Amino acid sequence: MPQFISVFPHENPYTHLPDAEKFFSKGRIVTEEGAPITADYEGNRYLLVAKKEEMTPEGKRITRIAHPIFGPHPPADLPQVTTVDIPPDLVEFVNQHTDALLGGEPLDGVEYFQSRYDSRVFTKSDWPDIICKFSPKSKERYKSICRSRAVCQSLSLHHLVVPLATLVPINLPFPLLVEERLNISRGERAQERDYTIYKDDLHEPIRQLAHFIIETGFSDVTWRNVPVIVPPTPEGSIGLVDLEEFAEPLTGLFGGFHRRGLVCCIGLDQIPIVTKVCQQRDLQFNHLPRIIEQRKKELAAQ
Ligand SMILES: Nc1ncnc2c1ncn2[C@@H]1O[C@H](COP(=O)(O)OP(=O)(O)O)[C@@H](O)[C@H]1O
Ligand SMILES: [Mg+2]
Known about the structure:
Phosphorylase Kinase, domain 1, 3 domains, 4-stranded mixed β-sheet, binds magnesium ion
């Protein structure tokens, strides 16, 4: 029995009740039982958003409210595991040069990619088809990759490409995440430009990305995390290369603190593609006019 009421943001029936005075768990992500997420937890996740109280004849009643942030488990017959071919010399190379790689030091044939402070992403010229990621959250990321592939398959989101991936044990407390390398431009400026260059090919991929965000709560949406695969192929055009943050759908769609959001990655004339999906999925967002104004100004300044 969940210790909270799970509702989507637009259908919250408890907004008229007063907020509880203290709510220390706000923003916490919890399991179906309301417990903290552990590394091996595979069930649905919920974001605690409100704690309401009301007076009843029996006394004060407290209700916690949470938004689901990852869609229901995919059906069991969908593939849960993905894999890529691992070059035979990879583990030895990584174990031999762990410190240098973690430090981003120059090494023969190794190229580093812009990544978060707590991760290190690199390729090596001998292994052109893969990209390697050190991340303390590599196990979680791998699970998100498997789930995301299943979501794309079950919703027929064939224009989104989730790279194949494998976890490789190395001499660190976490395994190395090795992914199929997608053909995307280098650097965020180029990845941003691709959204303009290939604009006409992206209407359907953007529609599908909006569905994916609503379904999963994927929230770190910016060009470098959802780059265009160049040139766009009939089988898929947007790569989902950074499936780490699943906070909640509104942030993924419309942005938030330090988060750009899908509508601020695309052209003004493509925004209706996203809003139509929101209507179909019954998702409301009151600040859209402000976000569109902001995007207009940003584009005009370019
Ligand atoms: N599978 C991939 N194929 C091609 N390029 C990738 C792939 N995964 C990541 N990259 C590139 O490496 C960058 C950093 O990877 P990412 O997983 O986003 O790291 P972080 O989680 O630290 O942001 C991405 O922005 C992208 O340019
Ligand atoms: Mg990233």
